[in-house]
Structures are given as C-alpha cells and as structure tokens.
Amino acid sequence: MKLLIGSDHGGFELKEDLKIFIQELGYEVKDYGTYDVQSCDYPDVAFQVAEDVAKGEGERGILVCGTGIGMSIAANKVKGIRASLCHDTFSARFAREHNDANILTLGGRVVGKGLAREIVRIWLEANFTGERHARRLNKIEEYEKNER
Ligand code: RB5
Fold first, then answer.
1. CATH domain 2-145 topology
2. Which residues are identified as catalytic?
3. Which end of the chain is less enclosed by CB atoms within 10 A, N or C?
C-alpha cells in the first residue's frame, strides 16, 4: 500500500517520526511536506494530499497539524475523502472498520510519538467491514454528488 503523508509546522516533528515508522512497517510513503518548522498553512498540504488520495495516487493518507482538526476540516472538503481525526486506538480501528476512512489526521501537539505510532499501526491494519456501514457511506456519497 502506498501512503501519502503531509503536515504543517505544528505536525512536522510527528510526521517525520511517522514516516520512518510507516516505512519500517513495509509501506511505501510519499511525503508532501512541510519540510521544516517554518510556519505554513495546513490547507495547502491537506488539499494536495486529499486530492491525490481521491485520484488514487496513493491508497490512503495521513495528515498532521497541531491539533489534527484543521487538517481534518480541510481534507473532508475534497470529494471522496473520509478523513478521521483519531487520538485513541479504538477510534482508529473503527474509523476503518465502520467509516472506511481513507485519511487519518493527528495532532502533533496532542499525542506523543508512542501513541501516534500505535494509532497509525491499527488504522493501517484494520479493514472496512462493509454491509450496513457501506449503506451509510453510500448516503454520504449521494449527498456529495448532489451538493449545491
Ligand atoms: C498552527 O498553529 C495550528 O493552528 C495548526 O497546526 C492546526 O492545529 C490547525 O488546526
């Protein structure tokens, strides 16, 4: 699986750590920046990663900002994106199993590296369970198609 990863300055340090971890797990990673701690705007990175996930350039994405909230709001504006902000492993598992989340967002100022790694591992390994959850996601997709 190819993963697209990005952050702003608030998530830079955690993004760098997760990049190494994800590669160690055996996944391919494409880094969309930011590349240092200089202040930048999270929507710029969120839209690039989310659009490329929606286009299929990579199967899934991980976005990190200070809280994970800005990245989540921005990524969810892109059609076809189901971004999930997860700061615990239970949410990470169900974001995949029930919501088929294709982007995980994290707050680099909220969680430590150890917990973030565990959240990422669980999120990467969990699979969508379909059935009634697919019906619910179809409703979101239909809404998206008809959005004015
Ligand atoms: C940047 O200071 C901060 O606002 C950003 O990283 C993020 O937390 C926004 O949601």
1. Ribose 5-phosphate Isomerase B; Chain: A, (3.40.1400)
2. 65, 98
3. C
